[in-house]
Write a structure and sequence with these properties.
Number of helices of chain B: 12
Low-confidence stretches of chain A: none
Structural class of chain B: alpha/beta
Structural class of chain A: mainly alpha
Shape of chain B: globular
Strand content of chain B: 15-25%
Radius of gyration of chain B: 21 Å
Radius of gyration of chain A: 23 Å
Largest interface: A-B, 21 and 34 residues
CATH superfamily of one domain in chain A: MetI-like
Oligomer: heterodimer
Strand order of the largest sheet of chain B: 6-7-8-3-9-10-14-13
CATH architecture of one domain in chain A: Orthogonal Bundle
Helix content of chain A: over 70%
Helix content of chain B: 25-40%
Largest sheet of chain B: 8 strands, mixed
CATH class of one domain in chain A: Mainly Alpha
Order of helices and strands of chain B: EEEHEEHEHHHHEHEHEEHHEEHEEH
Number of strands of chain B: 14
Order of helices and strands of chain A: HHHHHHHHHHHH
Low-confidence stretches of chain B: none
Chain lengths: 297, 325
């Protein structure tokens, strides 16, 4: 079991990863947010008053500051801000991870096919990637949602994924180009393997670590795009998210009256994207030995 | 009937300088049980022949003429699907075991059965296991190493695995392209013995491609010497290496690293590379040939028969006939 190179590689990578203060910090922050996201499932069970969307404290009619019953205070209709913050963490994870996942799936497949096939297929796929790569995703989303009304959160996730795969596919393509000429690919060709078998059985396991690295960077950008969209009022109105909280604080005119409402979601967005970014950077170091300092192996 | 019969094969590479005939009008026949060796320097077209027989020519290469008879098929006329059926099943290839000859993420046994799984997807698990054990016995790797990963193998063992991969489907023809070049002499010797034993046991046809004369001489019964895309001399091992007739064969056999002579390298004067653009049929060795006369550049050389098996491709019949020159 321990002989498996995946496990060996993982253990070795973990040792390098954990030595890096950047990676360690990122992981700790990420862990805190994960606990928050999990907690959001239980908060409404304590009392229906704590439901982030519909729970209203019957005693409160205006936005109040932190208290024992409402740790972060309430918004202007009496909803608990801490419950909203926890719900926002859950939504940020869902949006970030799922759109990053979709974009690396598309990016990896397109990149492998493009790199492996070469020629005209490569040219066409990469020109499409170029065209999509230069499109500003936020602006496109704004235009689309002003055309078709406010989107469901999953449609937003999907559109972000569609707009963000080209960078992944470029990296995977270049890795595939170098893998394509390794003797083991030639060997399976000689054994009579079909092109699809070579791509998915021999090339894919070798590019997956790189794809996962790029996934962490995609998470960051997806969370930011969703937050910006929600803040501008084009988010999913049925879904609490950090961007949505900022939108509400601005719309209800509490921007400069309620720092307890404005600051937590803002900081959360920054911290979570920072955590994913730090995670990606230190994973980069694991995968690329040239970035390591002297004495680390 | 010969297992493989190549007639007047011409292969051209489209390059920026025009069409290069990397293989120029080559004919040879291969019998089962008589391994055929191709020797020659880098760029003489040996590997191009190997790749043509696997149907894996690069995209800028084309077969310009000739035929390759294999069984009742002409290999020059197959499409990609038909090729995929032949590759690994009827014709297999043994590679040079360089760093990346095996996929690092899979266990060795999974890679050996690749060809079987590809060509017989309905094979049962027990049959597969039995075949796998046979193959590992054949190349003398202990069965308890079957589940290891490639990085746990030594270079010699990797080469054995590659041989096992080639043998997986009992191919009729094995093409060995520089299989021992990356190994040190001691392992090289073991692998060569292995290849010989396997070839005799399974009675397959074999084409052995190498620049190393000693290696080719130890495995092959018949030899083709190549220069600039042409076969310049062919015959049995004893004939070609015992009494070389073509000026290039003599040059090739005369070049070696001398250890006693202060490490001096004795290489004959080879000033120019062979001109691959030269029109079909002219002698390409003429630019470097010591005995070349003006006549060589104006007329096409002929096959001069020394014995029923031994032939040389040269313009100067008197030189070829005279073994002592």
């Amino acid at each position: 079991m321990l002989k498996n190179p995946y496990i060996q590689r993982f253990i070795k990578g973990w040792q390098i990863f954990i030595k890096n203060p950047l990676g360690k910090t990122g992981l700790i922050i990420l862990f805190v947010f994960m606990v928050m996201a999990l907690a959001s499932f239980f908060v409404p069970l304590i009392s229906p008053m704590y439901d982030p969307m519909t729970g209203i404290d019957p005693d409160i009619k205006i936005s109040t500051g932190p208290s024992l019953t409402h740790w972060l205070g309430t918004d202007n209709v009496g909803r608990d801000l801490f419950a909203q913050l926890l719900e926002g963490a859950k939504v940020a994870f869902i949006v970030g991870l799922s759109s990053a996942f979709f974009s690396i799936v598309i990016g990896t497949i397109v990149g492998m096919i493009s790199g492996y096939a070469g020629g005209i297929v490569d040219t066409i796929l990469m020109r499409i990637a170029d065209i999509i790569m230069v499109m500003p995703s936020l602006v496109i989303l704004l235009i689309l949602s002003s055309l078709f009304g406010q989107f469901n959160i999953w449609i937003i996730v999907f559109i972000i994924a569609i707009l963000r795969w080209p960078a992944v596919s470029r990296v995977i393509r270049s890795q595939t180009l170098s893998l394509k000429h390794r003797p083991f690919i030639e060997a399976s060709m000689v054994a009579g393997a079909s092109h699809l078998r070579i791509i998915f059985r021999h090339i894919m396991p070798n590019v997956l670590p790189l794809a996962f690295l790029y996934m962490t960077f995609r998470v960051t950008s997806a969370i930011l795009v969703e937050a910006a969209l929600s803040f501008l009022g084009f988010g999913d109105p049925s879904q609490v998210s950090w961007g949505m909280m900022l939108q509400w604080v601005w719309k209800s005119g509490h921007m400069f009256q309620a720092p307890y409402w404005l600051i937590p979601p803002g900081i959360s967005i920054s911290l979570l994207t920072l955590a994913f970014y730090m995670l990606g950077r230190s994973m980069d170091e694991v995968l690329d030995p040239r970035l390591r300092k002297e004495g680390q192996s | 009937m010969a297992l493989l019969s190549v007639q007047n094969l011409i292969i051209g590479y489209q390059s920026q300088n025009g069409l290069l005939r990397a293989v120029d009008n080559i004919s040879f026949e291969l019998e089962k049980g008589r391994p055929l060796g191709f020797v020659g320097e880098s760029g003489c077209g040996k590997t191009t022949i190997g790749m043509t027989l696997m149907g894996l020519l690069p995209s800028n290469a084309r077969i310009l003429g000739g035929s390759i008879g294999f069984g009742n098929k002409d290999l020059t006329k197959l499409n990609e699907d038909q090729w995929r059926n032949i590759r690994g099943k009827e014709i297999a290839m043994i590679f040079q075991a360089a760093m990346n000859a095996l996929n690092p993420v899979y266990r060795v046994d999974e890679q050996v059965i690749e060809a079987i799984v590809t060509h017989r997807p309905d094979i049962s698990a027990t049959d597969l296991d039995k075949r796998l054990k046979e193959l590992f016995d054949l190349v003398e790797i202990p069965q308890n190493r079957m589940k290891d990963f490639p990085h746990e193998y030594s270079g010699g063992m990797k080469q054995r695995v590659i041989i096992a991969m080639a043998l997986a489907c009992n191919p009729q023809l094995i093409i060995a392209d520089e299989p021992t070049t990356a190994l040190d002499v001691i392992v090289q010797d073991q692998i060569l013995k292995e290849i010989k034993i396997v070839q005799q046991k399974m009675n397959t046809g074999m084409i052995f491609i190498s620049h190393d004369i000693a290696v080719v001489a130890s495995v092959c019964k018949d030899i083709c010497v190549m220069y600039g895309g042409q076969i310049v001399e062919k015959g049995t091992r004893e004939e070609v290496f015992g009494s070389p007739r073509h000026p290039y064969t003599k040059t090739l056999l005369g070049s070696y690293l001398s250890l006693d002579n202060k490490g001096e390298i004795i290489v004959p004067d080879m000033r120019e590379a062979a001109d691959l653009k030269l029109e079909n049929g002219y002698c390409r060795f003429a630019v470097n040939c010591k005995i070349c006369s003006r006549a060589c550049k104006s007329r096409k050389p002929d096959w001069i028969e020394i014995s029923s098996t031994h032939k040389a491709f040269c313009c100067e019949e008197s030189v070829v006939r005279n073994a002592n020159e």
